């Protein structure tokens, strides 16, 4: 068995041919912020759309 990965032409890593993923501290921080701020941004967008809509005035019957 050779030490190169024939599919990609690169050297195989010691962990079964997989290259380490880029899961550094910045990637973890970005993922956490996306999870926390994603729903807030969606809610703010929906509220902006609701505020831009014309006001509803119910009919007053005498």
UniProtKB/TrEMBL annotation:
Domain of life of the source: Bacteria
Positions of region (Disordered): 1-24
Protein name: Uncharacterized protein
Source species: Streptomyces cinerochromogenes
């Amino acid at each position: 068995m050779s030490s190169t990965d024939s599919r990609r032409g690169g050297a195989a890593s010691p962990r079964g041919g997989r290259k380490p993923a880029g899961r550094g501290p910045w990637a973890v921080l970005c993922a956490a912020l996306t999870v926390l701020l994603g729903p807030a941004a969606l809610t703010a967008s929906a509220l902006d759309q609701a505020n831009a809509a014309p006001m509803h005035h119910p009919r007053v019957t005498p």
